[in-house]
Structure to design on (291 residues):
């Protein structure tokens, strides 16, 4: 069975996560060898996922952790005295 | 994200319940990021998400004796965070289309990726440019809530499919579908604009353009 581009796109996310079975992976790999569009779609999707996941993109607001633990301290103290 | 450590957590919980309350700080610390970003995704307001994160931590502490250990500790904590967030959304009667309950996987949409014929990788080093980080944040924040929540837990907090499904009160199948759609939407939005952040190609004479 030859798979088409649309079919490859449907499985891109699962392919990136290593969740497609061996047969489908082999089909997709074969398609990617000759289809520059799907190769570019796969590479760009993977690149976007890596960039978005970088710890510098989503950072906790400054001081959030300190404020959280200060509030917890007050709560722990309250429960201690009750 | 800090990797969960079930032995440490179980030991901590035992000792906290036995009276070593101060250990709760260490127990909750590895979950802080996930709690905050899930709430921030639900509530879309930094101050409110922070307040809800504090409330979540307190509720986790007060309910610690109810943790059964049949899911990961962080998964349980995130379920509490999600309930906290949803409770606030309902109370505030926030725009209905942005509440988790109002969105389903049946919504139709176009998840066709941006069609490209070649791709030059944008290295993580490019994130030194603040405008790139801002562009990525804006794209994630612009996703419909059900997709945004999944991206935050799966790709940003690196939780597995099962843990994400439990924390969001949905199925593993729904998590996979949503993640696929979210990534397609992000690729479509971002790929054409990321071009400018890729390293310059060498020209025919070997010089950088």
């Amino acid at each position: 069975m030859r798979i088409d581009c649309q079919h490859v796109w449907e499985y891109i996310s699962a392919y990136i996560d290593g969740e497609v079975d061996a047969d489908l992976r082999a089909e997709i790999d074969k398609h990617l060898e000759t289809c520059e569009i799907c190769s570019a779609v796969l590479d760009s999707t993977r690149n976007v996922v890596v960039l978005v996941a970088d710890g510098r993109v989503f950072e906790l607001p400054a001081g959030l952790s300190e404020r959280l633990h200060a509030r917890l301290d007050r709560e722990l103290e309250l429960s201690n005295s009750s | 994200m800090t990797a969960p450590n079930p032995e440490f957590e179980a030991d901590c919980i035992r000792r906290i319940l036995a009276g070593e309350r101060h250990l709760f700080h260490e127990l909750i610390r590895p979950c802080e990021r996930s709690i905050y970003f899930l709430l921030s995704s639900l509530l879309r307001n930094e101050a409110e998400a922070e307040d809800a994160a504090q409330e979540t931590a307190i509720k986790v502490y007060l309910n610690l004796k109810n943790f059964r250990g049949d899911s990961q500790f962080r998964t349980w904590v995130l379920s509490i965070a999600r309930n906290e967030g949803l409770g606030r959304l309902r109370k505030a009667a926030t725009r209905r289309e942005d509440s988790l309950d109002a969105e389903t996987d049946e919504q139709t949409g176009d998840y066709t990726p941006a069609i490209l014929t070649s791709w030059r990788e944008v290295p993580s080093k490019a994130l030194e440019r603040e405008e790139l980080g801002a562009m990525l944040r804006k794209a994630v924040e612009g996703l419909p809530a059900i997709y945004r929540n999944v991206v935050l837990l799966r790709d940003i907090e690196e939780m597995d499919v099962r843990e994400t499904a439990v924390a969001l009160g949905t199925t593993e199948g729904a998590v996979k579908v949503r993640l696929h759609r979210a990534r397609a939407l992000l690729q479509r939005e971002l790929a054409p604009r990321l071009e400018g952040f890729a390293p310059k190609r060498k020209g025919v004479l070997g010089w950088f353009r």
Remarks:
- Chain B touches chain A through 52 residues (CB under 8 Å).
- The longest helix of chain B spans residues 172-194.
